[in-house]
Amino acid sequence: MVKLGYFPGCSLSSTAKEYDISTRIVCEDLGIELVEIPHWVCCGATSAHITSDIAANALPAKTLIWAEKNNIPITSPCSACFSRLAIAHHTMATDEEMRKDVGEVVGEEYHGGAKVLHLARVFYETYGLEALKAKVKKPLKGLKVASYYGCLMTRPPEVCDFDRIENPMFMDKTVQALGAETVKWGYKTECCGAAFSLTKKEAVLKLTGDILSDAKECGADVIVVACPLCHANLDSRQREIERKSGKKIGLPIIYISQMIGLALGYNALDMAFKKHFVDPVKVLKEKGIL
Amino acid sequence: MARIGVFVCHCGTNIAGVVDVKRVAEYALTLPGVKYAIDYKYMCSDPGQNAIIEAVKEHKLDRIVVTACSPRMHEGTFRKAAERSGINQYMSEMANVREHDSWVHSDDKEAATLKAMKLMEMSVAKVRRSEALSKMYATVEKRALVIGGGIAGIQAALDIAEAGHKVVIVEKDPSIGGRMAQLDKTFPTLDCSACILTPKMVAASQHPNIELRVYSEVVEVNGYVGNFDIKIKKKASSVDNKKCISCGVCTLKCPSKRAQSEFDEKIAPRKAIYTPFPQAVPNKPVIDREACTFFLTGKCRICEKVCPTQAIDFNQQDEVVTEKFGAVVLATGFDIFDSNVYGEYGYGEYKDVVTSLQFERLINSSGPTEGHVVRLSDKKEPKNLVWIQCVGSRDESKGRPYCSRVCCMYTAKQAMLMKEHYPEVNCYVFYIDIRAAGKNYEEFVQKAQNEYGVIYLRGRVSKIYEKKDKLIVRGADTLSGSQVEIVADMVVLANGLEPRKDAKSLAQLFHVSYDQYGFFTELHPKLGPVETAIAGVFVAGACQACKDIPDTVAQAGAAASKVLGLFSKEKMEVEPLIAKVDPLVCSGCETCYNVCPYSAIEMEDREVSRGNLKHVAKVLDSVCKGCGACVGACYSKAVDLKGFSERQVYDQIETVTQ
Amino acid sequence: MKQYLEEKNFKQGFRKDVERLSKQKISNCYQCGKCSAGCPMAFKMDYPPTMTMRLIQLGLHDEVMGSNTAWYCVSCETCTTRCPREIDIAKVMDTLKIMAQAGKYEVSDTEIPIFDWIFLKSLQYTGKVYELGLIMTYNIISLNPFKDVFPLGLQMFLKGKIALFPHFINDPVAMWEHLEMFSKIHKKQKEKIRETNG
């Protein structure tokens, strides 16, 4: 039985509700106990770290202190939240001045004892692929998946404690364990534009468009992601990109938790596929998975 | 009662600018035994030395202290001056008030002066108990060992052999030739590497004074300059070289396809019984036991069956021999930086991303493709080629901040050769700076760009990824301020150089120091470029620092001349600063015998008084290095060090702690 | 040549300020261009990251702070990950934005500072980001009130992807602590910038 502090992040209560729903269902089924961190506050995201480095470290500090006190590793399904938590942990572990400043602001000092995990790596490492394989009821046979890691799940390497930064494989291997095939493609870790979705929309459309068309060209049926921002850009902006380029893409974007959920035998309703802009149901039915 | 003279040097303003030298000299006169003290602008100059000589004579001095620079600079000078003045040279001492004082304490003149006075006083305390010693001599074994059979080792060996001395070359591979044998053409003249190397390989193998020990390694080192005892292990080649006639049938018939050719940088298979390349010297095959079917399964023995002279010997064992050498040249060369470290370039994952040495083999007419440059993935000829410079050079994040010196040049050469062989291809080179400082080098790089049309782009490549059968290279050209994307068929990584993986362990055998990368450290970066801190051990080639062929050959010649200088003496002067045992005090406990790192102590049964045999330690004068380990270890204070006696050291400590 | 530099243009104090606040050694940069080569947003930037680093080295603060470069940095950390000189370039970009927003220099972007202001306000008063409020306020302030409302916003609403009401921290003590922390953060950050700006 694995017990983890759960930091869902703001998006998971609105735009990425289906990620939250599927994560909770899948974790319960697998026997991963998620304890939502009491009174958690937003990690501050990009807005904090480009406005005030104190805020960028102080906002995650409370969560980190909770984890340290209760001696429970914390996990976030959102790459941005994960990154902010991990970077704040790393900064305070290495920069004594910042640790003290944050201690004054928060009213409590952080001593560097928390462990921050990305949800995707919880499935891969903490839970383990062998255990996961044993749970698969409905192998995702014949489904070609492009695993999209985005920027912040693996970067920077010293913060993420990860060595295969340029060609990560853990999501590929997880998806393979569920019975699906993965495609080789070049945009695994390219940026989708993330937080610029509202402010620099044109740039986001280009970046996201490049990612989608490379995945399509490399023969993917779906893209698997583990971040609500990646999902928002790739999924909800897809129609706009199609309209602009005049080319049909039609690539469903599926969360890693939903992918596992499918293999565990849950249906489209359980996984809240209705909330997606590009409907995955059709492709999944074609492949005989749903 | 000792009569001591103290001579305080100004060293121009080096010392006198900080230390009040007059005060030091005046203070000296107050010390017991000091009969004379002066200060002078340059004690090391002729007038300075003459002042010492005259003072000794005039004031009947029997020992002197010179307060000046480091003994490493001028101990010899003042010892000679002492001897010319008629006293034993070991009755002189130096106090280092330059490196140890004025240079490092220039911000506090008063404290520096007080420190100078103390340092001088310590030397006076020491010299008071000095004893006259006489020089010792050791024989020189006029036989050199060269480790590494590349161009550096071959050149050094030839130069020593030509001067009439015996040389042994130890090479760990089955053939000499080293890296240069793998190369196609050489910059900046584009002459064929093998064409200029193979005559030297043959000359080395046929020279009556040179003995080749291939497939061999040095495993243990004892002794010292002039008298090294070195253990060399010859790995079992499973072939009796006396019987082998180099017909090559064994290699031809060998069915094993497991191994990849090291010589061809693992882009082609090789047999289990093989010679690394056709011009190998000596041209005798070896069996790679890890790839040989017989050694793996117990069945096969085809080579044994086809050999016309029964030269195959599966039972051969490794052999270790111990031999004496007077001098050693380390010439172990380089490896190229491990490209796998750059995940963003995808080496190992994308077959058409190759190392620079792999490209050398591809374009080499004696290489596995007979000089046809093809993609390793589909054997098609590439149309667009990209070179990426500084892979493992000038990169702190990969632990290689240094410039490898040769990559700019070989990149230009490779791109030029490609254009020469296939005029229609496009060659792109990503570089940060071009370093072409050798003779005719800059002109060569210009030629690549202006006459051959190689396109140079100033920027590092950020990422390579594969799309269908193409490699997408994402780089930048900082001169135009643009991002660059090149759809390439092949990418060549211009790997930097690093020492051989086992260089550090070899250095440890010889007690030679090395830097954080494993390059052997020369004695002095400017004035001792081929010597090491270990007398009699010299360095040549890329094992000391990244070097091209001309520099390597020059350094090999220099190392050879140092060896010859050593061999020109019949006997070698050695310092008499060694341990001695007082047999009357020695209890025979053997502690010193056990701690001595040089095996310079022997136990003997000695007649200490008539008819009274005693088990005592004895120092072998020619082996002792004067390290003092035995002195520290002796329980009964029976061992002492000449020139550094316990009483001298204690007196110094007492002086400084008063 | 666009620029003509004289000695008086070189404001080394600016380089030192950036180095101190970012804790990065900018003088280490040798302009190899690896950051620019891999930057996904370089196509939008006035100066690519390489050149920005050069401008900081020379102390040309008007060029650096007047350009859009930092504001187009999307914090993907690609440059930081691959920099051969171990400079956290993304952190330097953050620092430039922090310095601009602290008041001494020009803020050369309109969209992101507004977005951040609303984002952080939302976070300050609720503890979490209220996405609908954020999007609507941003659209109103940026004088484009109907941006993305049709069809995207409407569909999002219909798919239940947008929560109508903000989530608050539902514990008064925790909420009070949170508000207090925010005011302390503001004070501390101001102190830090003031120290650097002398």
Topology:
The complex is a heterotrimer of chains A (290), B (658) and C (198).
Chain A: E1 2-6, H1 17-30, E2 32-36, H2 45-49, H3 53-70, E3 74-76, H4 79-94, H5 96-106, E4 116-118, H6 119-135, E5 144-147, H7 157-160, H8 170-177, E6 181-182, H9 201-217, E7 222-225, H10 228-236, H11 238-245, E8 253-255, H12 256-263, H13 281-286
Parallel strand pairs in A: 1-2, 1-3, 3-4, 5-6, 5-7, 7-8
Helix pairs in contact in A: 1-12, 3-4, 3-5, 4-5, 6-8, 9-11
Chain B: E1 4-9, H1 21-29, E2 34-40, H2 46-59, E3 63-68, H3 71-84, E4 92-96, H4 98-102, H5 109-128, E5 136-139, E6 143-147, H6 151-162, E7 166-170, E8 185-186, E9 191-192, H7 193-206, E10 210-213, E11 216-224, E12 227-234, H8 249-253, E13 259-260, E14 269-270, E15 273-274, E16 286-287, H9 293-297, H10 302-306, E17 319-325, E18 327-330, E19 334-336, E20 353-355, H11 356-363, E21 384-391, H12 407-421, E22 426-431, H13 441-450, E23 455-458, E24 463-467, E25 470-477, E26 482-488, E27 490-495, E28 497-499, H14 503-510, E29 537-539, H15 549-567, E30 571-574, E31 579-581, H16 591-595, E32 601-609, E33 612-619, H17 629-633, E34 639-641, H18 646-657
Parallel strand pairs in B: 1-2, 1-3, 3-4, 6-7, 6-18, 7-10, 18-29, 20-27, 21-22, 21-27, 22-23
Antiparallel strand pairs in B: 5-30, 8-9, 11-12, 12-17, 13-14, 15-16, 19-28, 24-25, 25-26, 31-34, 32-33
Chain C: H1 12-22, H2 34-38, H3 49-58, H4 61-66, H5 69-72, H6 78-82, H7 89-101, H8 111-126, H9 131-141, H10 149-158, H11 172-197
Helix pairs in contact in C: 1-7, 8-9
Brief digest:
Chain A is of the alpha/beta class and 290 residues long. Helix content of chain A is 49%, strand content 10%.
Describe what you observe in this structure.
The complex is a heterotrimer of chains A (290), B (658) and C (198). Chain A has 290 residues and is α/β, with parallel strands linked by helices. Chain A has 2 domains: 117 residues, Glutathione S-transferase Yfyf (Class Pi), Chain A, domain 2, CATH 1.20.1050; 149 residues, 3-Layer(aba) Sandwich (Rossmann fold), CATH 3.40.50. Chain A is built from 13 helices and 8 strands. In chain A, the strands form 2 sheets. In chain A, strands 2-1-3-4 form a 4-stranded parallel β-sheet, sandwiched between helices. Chain A has a 4-stranded parallel β-sheet with strand order 6-5-7-8, with helices on both faces. In chain A, helix 3 packs across helix 5. In chain A, 60% of the residues are buried. In chain B, 47% of the residues are buried. Chain B is an alpha/beta fold. Chain B has 5 domains: 125 residues, Rossmann fold (3-Layer(aba) Sandwich); 165 residues, 3-Layer(bba) Sandwich (FAD/NAD(P)-binding domain), CATH 3.50.50; 58 residues, no CATH class; 163 residues, FAD/NAD(P)-binding domain; 63 residues, 2-Layer Sandwich (Alpha-Beta Plaits), CATH 3.30.70.20. In chain B, strand 32 and strand 33 form a beta hairpin. Chain B contains 18 helices and 34 strands. The radius of gyration of chain B is 31 Å and the shape is globular. The longest helix of chain B is centred in the first third of the chain and has 20 residues. In chain B, the strands form 12 sheets. In chain B, strands 10-7-6-18-29 form a 5-stranded parallel β-sheet. Chain B has a 5-stranded parallel β-sheet with strand order 20-27-21-22-23. By secondary structure, chain C is mainly alpha-helical. Chain C has 2 domains: 95 residues, Alpha-helical ferredoxin (Fumarate Reductase Iron-sulfur Protein, Chain B, domain 2, Orthogonal Bundle); 87 residues, no CATH class. Chain C contains 11 helices and no strands. In chain C, helix 1 crosses helix 7 and helix 8 runs antiparallel to helix 9. Chain C is globular, with a radius of gyration of 20 Å. The model of chain C has no long low-confidence stretch (mean pLDDT 88). At the B-C interface, strand 25 of B face helix 2 of C.
